[in-house]
Specification:
The chain has 532 residues and is mainly alpha-helical. Helix content is 75%, strand content 0%. The N and C termini lie far apart (78 Å).
């Protein structure tokens, strides 16, 4: 009887895990749609100045901002392909494709925040999320420099498509994941992606369109059948920004709730012993002598295959993040899985480009740029163990965020919003002004990195004052002063709130005492009258 009860409990928990995963994937779709609603016409402003697009640094930042706004590298790549089809040179579009690669990793960084309550879990989850960022940033910095100097990606992909024949027989691969999630997500919200793409390309055809929400899909009396149609032009008409904020809140609540439940259920169903077995099995190398080095490459193939199945690198890496936080997948194993996911998502975009109509060669060349960019990045930062820089960088970020949890939010805002927006803003002042600011900052960062390496590995060659950073003020060498200020601010807020609550309680007590005194006086007067 007890065994049957335990089995039923396990089955129930497995069903709940599958349910949580389903709604988690739906929440990612809602998160993407909310950013599209909030981005809206702003996409057109990013692409409006054709002179700015010729600057590769600006192109990268535009790619980052667009992908963050639409929460989908596939959508941003489609927009960029549309720009190429509208006579924007492939050379101009290449940095934007690189930026799109960076922007797509914002989702799993947000997902890692759900494990913030446990320092150790948060350290592992944030490191797993940011190893993707570190790989993308290092690859972009390296390959943008190479591309500007040599035109490597443009020439290589141009040679690939030069002999390309007819592609009209190609077809887009089936999207297995959307078959399952679309019935639910389409009942909540539907967007007109043609309007979004038209605004991004500043197409006059969509100049008078006022909303990204799908309209005109029902009769005049009922309007469109999805829930958010009631907030659009066919209903309350609160605007795309209002609908986007509401959907963003709903998406974040769903995402956090599903992931918290998922982690709790995994911990309860596995137990420490089973968790240890899975951990050892997943993170173990091939047990054949001299073949252990192949494990990472096989894991990459698995990551690519799973991403092709779910048709989204964001979904795959966001599902991987809580597993890393729970300790089931090590950072060393998550890294090749993430690299494989990068390859998988470019393969699906390549197949979609093969099915495109009009400007097929340009579309295929841009998709090949995306693929070759990721393959080159992997060749740079994976085969040689010494060159796997994203792993120690992500570990360092994980250590910092486990100690100063506010740093994770600062990192997200800085890397994906503030920094790209500042670069884009500087570019409006002119190329010279942008480089006058960027070159000294870049030089300073390189000097700091060099000094850190020398302090760690060759301290003997440095003067005694430069063997550590203690000669600098504390604010310039440590996050402690900022942490104290932030903690003090929150403590002050709590004390103020506590004092206010105490005052209210004291006032309430005084009022109760006064009421009791008045009641007692009334009773005494009544007693005196009865006596008389």
């Amino acid at each position: 009887m007890a065994k049957a009860k335990d089995m039923l409990m396990v089955v129930a928990k497995v069903v709940m895990i599958i349910t949580c995963l389903y709604f988690f994937i739906c929440s990612l779709s809602f998160l993407s749609d909310s950013f599209r609603l909030l981005g809206g016409r702003n996409l057109g402003a990013l692409f409006a100045n054709s002179e700015l697009l010729n600057n590769p640094v600006v192109g990268v930042m535009i790619g980052v901002l667009v992908t963050v706004l639409v929460q989908s590298s596939s959508t941003s790549t489609t927009i960029i392909v549309g720009l190429v089809a509208a006579d924007v040179p492939v050379k101009t579009a290449i940095p934007m494709i690189m930026g799109a690669n960076i922007g797509t990793s914002v989702t799993n960084t947000i997902v890692s925040f759900t494990q913030m309550s446990d320092r150790e879990e948060f350290r592992r989850a944030f490191a797993c999320a940011t190893v993707h960022d570190m790989f993308n940033w290092l690859s972009v910095i390296t390959l943008v420099t190479v591309e500007v100097c040599t035109g490597y990606l443009e020439k290589m992909t141009g040679a690939m498509v030069a002999t390309l024949g007819d592609t009209k027989g190609s077809s887009k691969p089936p999207d297995f994941l959307k078959v399952l999630t679309k019935p639910f997500t389409k009942s909540i919200i539907q967007l007109n992606k043609k309007v979004l793409s038209g605004w991004a390309r500043n197409d006059p055809k969509y100049e008078n369109s006022t909303t990204v929400l799908k309209t005109g899909c029902g009769d005049d009396s009922t309007g469109c059948p999805f829930l958010f149609a009631k907030l659009g032009p066919e209903g309350a008409n609160i605007g795309d920004s209002g609908s986007g904020i509401i959907l963003l809140v709903v998406a974040l609540i769903m995402l956090c709730g599903c992931l918290i439940c998922l982690v709790k259920l995994l911990n309860s169903i596995l137990g420490e012993r089973v968790k240890e077995i899975i951990k050892n099995g997943v993170n173990k190398d091939i047990p054949i002598k001299y073949l252990g080095w192949l494990t990472g490459y096989l894991v990459m193939i698995v990551g690519a295959f799973l991403t092709i199945i779910v048709q989204s690198s964001s979904v795959f890496t966001s599902t991987l993040t809580p597993l890393a936080g729970a300790g089931l997948v090590s950072l060393e194993r998550a890294y090749p899985l993430t690299l494989g996911s990068n390859i998988g998502t470019t393969t699906t975009s390549l197949l979609a480009a093969l099915a495109s109509k009009g400007h097929e060669k340009e579309a295929i060349q841009i998709a090949l740029v995306h693929l070759c960019f990721n393959i080159t990045g992997i060749l740079l930062f994976y085969p040689v163990p010494f060159m796997r820089w994203p792993i120690p960088l992500a570990q360092r970020l994980g250590d910092i965020t486990s100690k100063y949890r506010w740093f994770s939010i600062a990192y997200l805002l800085l890397m994906f919003f503030i920094f790209p927006a500042i670069i884009f803003g500087l570019s409006l002042a002119g190329t010279v002004a942008m480089y006058v600011v960027l070159i000294p900052i870049t030089a300073l960062v390189l000097v700091i990195i060099l000094m850190n390496l020398l302090q760690k590995h060759k301290p003997a060659i440095l003067p005694s004052i430069l063997k550590d950073w203690k000669f600098l003020p504390e604010l310039l060498r440590s996050l402690e002063p900022l942490d104290r200020a932030i903690v003090a601010s929150f403590s002050c807020f709590k004390i103020c709130k506590l004092s206010k609550n105490t005052e209210i309680e004291t006032e309430t007590d005084h009022n109760l005492n006064d009421m009791q005194k008045d009641r007692q006086e009334v009773v005494n007067k009544g007693f005196e009258q009865d006596s008389v």
